[in-house]
Specification:
The protein is α/β, with parallel strands linked by helices. The protein folds into four domains: 166 residues, Response regulator (Rossmann fold, 3-Layer(aba) Sandwich), CATH 3.40.50; 141 residues, Beta-Lactamase (2-Layer Sandwich); 129 residues, Alpha-Beta Plaits; 188 residues, TIM Barrel, CATH 3.20.20.450. The protein has 25 helices and 27 strands. An eight-stranded mixed beta barrel has the order 19-20-22-23-24-25-26-27, surrounded by five helices. It is elongated and about 145 Å long. The protein starts with 29 loop residues before the first strand and ends with a helix. Bound molecules: ligand C2E and calcium ion (CA) (2 copies). The site of one calcium ion has 4 residues, from strand 24.
Length: 745
């Protein structure tokens, strides 16, 4: 019968055929290395210790017959060996001691216990060696009885087990410290929770797979009762930020719910759900587990869970900062940044279409100015409140900018009709009741993914179009709108570059006196080479230059260039030829415009009357006072003024008396109306109006003789058109002038 030392030092009997694995080493056994050059000692040791069980594990023997053989074994398997029974005298008198030194110092292995055995007392190591090399026991072979051997081995194995546990705890503690420190650096709930799962897994030596779930509540500001997956690792990772209900595993969801309900950990076969509850944060951490948790593991867990509260507080702080960055301070709705995030979030149902809407409150600035900022703010809050009560929680609402609100949700719920209904009745703002008008831009989201910013941009394009509409106050985004916008923007960029590179040209179209046929002036017309031998029409690019403000610089160049040409014309003997320059509205808005014209004239020593400015009726009507003041001042300086495209501006004629005009240019369309044998009523009216007001008239776009004859008959004095000459570069103009002079003389 064999003594067997069990858990509680009770004697038990062991099943004879428990064996070590083939590799010779096993985790389920205590590995005992016997090192001795005496064959017999090996046999006796085996026999004496056969069937000994310590703390539920049997012994497994490894045998080395020399110090060098033992050295080899220790090098490869040292960390798995619990006890070494070591002969001191082998190849040399101190071969065993040299081996101990090798184990402790060279290999740095502190865990294996060492029991020295020697034949004679004279080979006993020094006291200091025993202490320095942490040797457990020292025995003279002859004194070593079987019982003593068993006692020594049991004590050594126990000591070994303790050391291992302490070391494991130390590793565990280090992981906790590192883990919490890592978590401290996480700035989002998502990262934090992911970190918790990963750290837990590493703590427990598991596959990093698991979930952190919590009721949304204060954490993410959503529906309070729904449990969300805040963090996940491994296979669960794609589920982050989704409601727990999306997880297709009843066992897991039930246990998570149970853990949150009962507010306690659940340890079960194959998984654990840990209850986390710190600083107002309540969560359930689910981890897959293939082995049971030891008491030791559970202690580590508790320690870990309590230490991560620091990390959570940290995250909470960031969450609040985040809120500040993603919430509108006034309405508490998501702000533009957050709206962009919301737009990017995949919809829970990919089959139903979603629509984004931007709602722009008309004339909000006037309300703000008129009633004060407090009333303005109250009004915005009141709009936000109505949006929230009308549109259920499936629709996300946001304030995008001061007076623009955003919605995103099911297309069936977000329609112009629904939104307009909301603005049927007035809004309350402090003591005021204010009716509101809005413009609505809508964008039905496509199935392919777009960034939030792109979506917002497109909806905004639709909104801008909606503002230009007269009948309806809304517009849906359509790709053509954007194509136009993109084209326009790239054209403006190109124009800006080409202008900077001095690629724009100024051409000149002669104007003639209908009775004499003499050239009495030219009109300066911009030409923009398109890089392919042709020109982009000014009818296309001038509106863009105006829209972008680029016309101010370009117009200045046209003025300078025209004055330079006036100087050249004068020097060439054509001092009677005026040069007409087209002026756009943005140029008048420049306070220095009048000075700039005068400076251009002075720089090239021009007689001011040789310069004529052409403005359209719409320019006059846009800001009459600015234009009238500027023209008065220029007129006083001697510059001539013509109204371009006269008759097309639908404007009141009364301003004609207030403007210091010289000439009306009869628009090409009226000249075009002139047919043989018919009266061209408008052309006739314009000419007689000009005559009554004492203004000269010039017919634009004269292409055929009958048009010229008719205009001349009406009393129109001058004409311009392809019939006489097309616009041409300045050199060509000089040749043209010279040729005509030669033919008339
Ligand atoms: P606009 O001021 O009415 O200029 C007259 C336009 O009619 C010119 O077109 C000219 O080439 C064209 N035209 C002249 N005779 C005939 C004709 O017999 N038949 C036809 N079909 N067309 C004729 P262009 O040069 O394409 O200029 C278009 C518009 O671009 C101008 O209309 C003017 O509004 C603007 N523009 C051109 N240069 C400038 C500039 O330097 N500054 C500003 N602000 N606008 C300019
Ligand atoms: Ca013109
Ligand atoms: Ca014109």
């Amino acid at each position: 019968m064999t003594h067997i030392y069990g858990d509680n030092d009770k004697l038990v009997f062991l099943d004879e055929d428990a064996q070590a694995s083939e590799s010779g080493l096993s985790e389920k056994f205590w590995n005992v290395l016997v090192v001795d050059d005496d064959e017999e000692t090996h046999t006796i040791t085996r026999l004496s210790l056969a069937n000994l069980v310590v703390n539920k594990r049997q012994l497994n023997f490894l045998h080395a017959y020399s110090a060098s053989q033992a050295r080899e074994m220790l090098l490869h398997h040292g960390s798995q060996i619990a006890v070494i029974l070591l002969d001191v005298v082998m190849e040399t008198d101190d071969a065993g001691l040299v081996l101990v030194k090798y184990l402790r110092e060279t290999l740095g292995l502190e865990e294996p216990r060492i029991v020295l055995r020697t034949g004679r007392l004279s080979n006993a190591p020094e006291q200091s060696t025993i202490i320095d090399y942490d040797i457990n026991d020292y025995k003279i072979k002859t004194e070593f009885t079987r019982n003593q051997l068993i006692t020594t081995i049991v004590a050594s194995v126990r000591a070994y087990q303790h050391i291992i546990t302490i070391n494991q705890n130390r590793v565990g503690l280090r992981k906790i410290i590192d883990g919490s420190a890592n978590l401290l650096e996480e700035h989002s709930i998502k990262e934090f929770c992911e970190g918790v799962v990963t750290q837990l897994a590493s703590l427990l030596g598991l596959e990093a797979e698991g979930l952190v779930c919590a009721k949304a509540g204060s954490t993410i500001g959503k529906d309070l009762e729904t449990v969300y997956i805040l963090g996940a690792a491994g296979n669960f990772a794609p589920l982050i930020s989704q409601p727990l209900t999306l997880l297709d595993d009843v066992l897991i969801t039930d246990n998570i719910q149970r853990c949150l309900r009962q507010k306690q950990h659940i340890f079960d076969a194959g998984f654990s759900v840990l209850y986390l509850h710190k600083a107002g944060f309540e969560a359930a951490v689910y981890v897959n587990m293939t082995h049971d948790l030891s008491a030791n593991d559970k202690q580590l867990l508790e320690l870990f869970l309590s230490s991560i509260s620091i990390g959570y507080e940290n995250v909470h702080l960031f969450q609040q900062l985040r809120n500040a960055a993603f919430r509108d301070w006034l309405t508490r709705l998501p702000n533009r940044n957050e709206f962009i995030n919301l737009l990017e979030r995949p919809s829970s149902d990919s089959h139903t279409s979603r629509t984004v809407a931007l709602i722009d409150i008309s004339r909000f600035a006037d309300i703000n100015d008129g009633l004060g900022q407090d009333a303005g703010n109250a009004l915005l809050v009141s709009v936000a409140t109505r949006l929230c009560s009308f549109f259920d929680s499936s629709i996300d609402k946001a304030r995008i900018s001061s007076d623009i609100f955003g919605l995103v949700g099911l297309s069936s719920k977000i329609s112009p009709q629904h939104i307009n209904d909301l603005f049927e009745s007035s809004y309350q703002a402090l003591e005021h009741t204010i009716p509101l008008n809005v413009h609505i831009g809508l964008y039905e989201l496509p199935s392919q993914k777009e960034t939030g910013l792109e979506i917002l941009k497109r909806t905004n394009i639709a909104l801008n179009r909606a503002k230009k509409r007269h009948q309806d106050n809304f517009e849906y985004y359509a790709p053509e709108i954007e194509e136009r916008t993109i084209l326009r923007l790239s054209m403006i960029r190109q124009l800006r570059n080409d202008f900077a590179d001095r690629k724009l040209q100024l051409w000149f179209q002669p104007q003639i006196n209908l009775s004499t046929g003499n050239i009495i002036g030219v009109e300066s017309l911009l030409r923009w080479p398109d890089g392919q031998g042709g020109f982009t029409s000014p009818a296309v690019f001038i509106p863009m230059a105006e829209y972008s403000g680029l016309i101010v610089d370009i117009g200045q160049w046209v003025l300078d260039e025209s004055c330079r040409r006036i100087q050249s014309l004068t020097q060439a003997g054509y001092r009677e030829v005026r040069v007409a320059v087209n002026i756009s509205m943005p140029q008048f808005r420049d306070r220095l415009f009048v000075d700039k014209v005068k400076q251009a004239l002075a720089r090239f020593a021009c007689i001011p009357s040789q310069l004529e400015l052409e403005i359209t009726e719409s320019v006059v009507m846009d800001e009459p006072q600015i234009v009238i003041d500027a023209l008065d001042s220029l007129k006083a300086h001697g510059v001539s003024i013509a109204i371009d495209d006269f008759g097309t501006g639908f404007s009141s004629m009364s301003y004609l008396q207030h403007l210091p005009l010289d000439r009306l240019k009869v628009d090409r369309s009226f000249v075009n109306d002139i047919q043989p044998g018919k009266t061209a009523v408008i052309a006739e009216t314009i000419v007689s109006l000009g005559n009554k007001l004492g203004l000269s008239t010039i017919a634009e776009g004269v292409e055929r003789v009958e048009q010229a004859d008719y205009m001349k008959q009406l009393g129109c004095i001058e004409a311009q058109g392809y019939m006489y000459a097309k616009p041409m570069p300045f050199d060509a103009l000089i040749n043209h002038l010279a040729a005509r002079q030669a033919s008339t003389h």
